[in-house]
Amino acid sequence: MSILGSPRKGMNASRYIKVALFLAFLIAVPWIWRENRFITTIFISALMFGIWGVMYDLQIGYGGLINFGFAGFICAGAYGSALAVLHYEINPWFAMLIGATAAGVLGFLTGVVTLRLQGIFVGLATWFLAEVLRLTISNTPGYTRGMLGLSVKPLPDLFGFNFSRAELLPYYYLLLILSIIIFAAAFLMVNSRIGLSFKAIREDQLATETLGLSATKYKLINFTTACFFTGLIGAYYAHYIGILTPDTTEFGVPRTVEVLTVAYGGGRGTQSGSILSVFLLIGFQEYFRQLGPWRLVMYGALLIAVMIYAPKGLSSFKKYIW
What we know:
Layout: H1 2-32, H2 37-62, H3 70-88, H4 92-114, H5 120-138, H6 141-144, E1 150-151, H7 168-190, H8 193-203, H9 205-210, H10 215-241, E2 243-244, H11 248-251, H12 253-266, H13 272-287, H14 294-309, H15 318-321
Antiparallel strand pairs: 1-2
Helix pairs in contact: 1-7, 2-7, 2-10, 2-12, 2-13, 3-4, 3-5, 3-10, 4-10, 7-10, 8-10, 12-13, 12-14
């Protein structure tokens, strides 16, 4: 028994060491270069897109759910939180939960409507509903300010930490805490019996249903959970960035393409792949920022290259990186 158990213990110890090293990297680098706001901004962008990538991977990589309207749920979380503060004077900390709940409810209702469909039809339906949300916001300036731009209050001070927008580190470490919580929740979910149901439905829905499992039920759990956490980071984004406009770059197809690239580039069904790949992709994005919309073409080329030369995503190179 000891002979059989020792390799597993060694593997677990190695995994914990790698996680600890990566967390130490995320904690230390922005603090060491805290005078350099650009580095902190890069790390904030990387963590946001990394967690969005994890949530997209939860849907496509584990549940087999195509979501072309992913940016719409970011939008729901962001506007849900911002409007709660603006019109109802709710504390921004509680408003973030309202934004997350708004995205989760929208995800549940979208799932009820679309998840009985199959394949690409689910993706098209989610894209349509996300565009309806974005255009509704654009055309109700009296309530949402529309294309004029909605000013969002920063988060109030908490436990002595100053969350004014002049201070980026508190926003970064708040995002790091949220990211750890969300990643842990996703990890526990996919490694539970619910996660096994996701994978079974993804591989063969008909065979799974013959065993007595409700595919629609588990798809709804997957979709709603992913949308809730997506909306939570969307709410954070609203208070961090300070102003929201429902344009396509921020909450349209380009944003979905960026998240999709992170998820597919990291590797479907890997979870950690999105976190590892996002730093490369964010660096790629910043380096070619001056190219504007042409970056999406380059994202497409990069995605094709990954699918051809690394079908399992960049996470397949983890052993070489370590």
